[in-house]
Specification:
Blueprint (H helix, E strand, L loop, with lengths): L3 H21 L3 H5 L4 E9 L11 H7 L3 E8 L3 E7 L13 H18 L3 E7 L3 E8 L2 H13 L9 H11 L5 E6 L7 H8 L3 E8 L11 E5 L6 E5 L3 H24 L3 E6 L4 H16 L1
Parallel strand pairs: 3-4, 3-6, 6-7, 7-10
Antiparallel strand pairs: 1-2, 4-5, 8-9
């Protein structure tokens, strides 16, 4: 039995995301996430005017006359949502937990994909792969994805992006648009990201809370790491410690951006206080300009 407050949250995100797609992003997604290319359809005999680059020389040599390869454009795409379910996504200051933002992003992306007749698949991960939902179409599928985010109980608490990417590489052969929704409190996944980038279009969605970049000014405080359970004591009245803490958090943020840059992959920065639709729309427009 799903608690009433969870059902209310799922409905709110479902309705809000659908409205954003219909009213704000109409057509924007389609213009930047087209079909994954072209696929072979058949060969036919060469006709005057055909591009000589399309000649199939093996078939032509076997049959004694020129034949050309025909291709058709793939209209249907697959969107894979890789959603971080680690304990750190439960953190939030003034704008709610990061997990709520991840759910809204997943919902908006899924609605855009379904509207464009694309399939949507999901991988939930922590320090292990927790659950895989194969790509499907339909509004009811989106509802299931959002529901799973708030009702699924992961076994792990930490974050292992590499393991999730390696799993995707094994199960997904067709080129897909892959969105990684996480706060990226992890390291050492550059090799896996580069490998998956060879086949799939990978886009990171880095969800962060600026409130977590600063210690609360309340004297001696103890902070607990959501993922490891480790506790550290700080003197929050000490300006040097405050500055060092903030610098450490900002360095971790920049390290993620640099890592995606090295892998030649896009990354969308989403602060928990920011609008999901505005942030994604800004990215869609920026991507469209680059593709022209």
């Amino acid at each position: 039995m799903i608690p009433a407050h969870i059902i209310k949250k799922i409905k709110r995100i479902h309705i809000k995301s659908r409205r954003s797609v219909n009213n704000i992003m109409a057509g924007q997604y389609k213009s930047v996430f087209r079909g994954s290319g072209i696929e072979f359809e058949e060969v036919r005999e060469y006709a005057p005017g055909d591009d000589v680059k399309t000649i199939d020389w093996k078939v032509s040599a076997r049959l004694g006359k020129p034949f050309v390869k025909l291709y058709k454009e793939e209209r249907e795409s697959i969107v894979m949502l890789m959603i971080d379910m680690s304990s750190s996504l439960k953190f939030g200051t003034f704008s709610g937990p990061k997990l709520d933002k991840a759910a809204e992003v997943a919902s908006v992306l899924a609605f855009n994909a379904i509207r464009n007749n694309d399939k949507v698949g999901v991988i939930f991960f922590t320090d292990r792969v927790e659950k895989y939902i194969p790509p499907k179409k339909g509004a009811s599928h989106i509802w299931r994805v959002i529901k799973e985010i708030f009702t699924f109980s992961p076994q792990g608490t930490g974050t292992n992006v590499s393991e999730a990417l390696d799993y995707l590489s094994k199960i997904s052969r067709k080129r897909s648009f892959v969105f990684i929704l996480s706060d990226f409190l992890d390291d050492g996944y550059l090799k896996s990201l580069r490998q998956i980038r060879q086949r799939h279009e990978t886009i990171g969605v880095m969800i962060y809370d600026t409130g977590g970049f600063k210690l609360p000014e309340k004297g001696i405080i103890t902070l607990s790491d959501f993922e490891t359970g480790r506790q550290i004591m700080f003197d929050a009245f000490n300006n040097r410690i405050q500055n060092e803490f903030t610098a450490l958090k900002r360095a971790g943020h920049k390290k993620t951006l640099d890592l995606f840059s090295k892998a030649k992959s896009d990354v969308i920065e989403l602060e928990t206080a920011a609008s999901v639709s505005d942030t994604l729309l800004k990215y869609f427009k920026s991507r469209e300009r680059r593709l022209r």
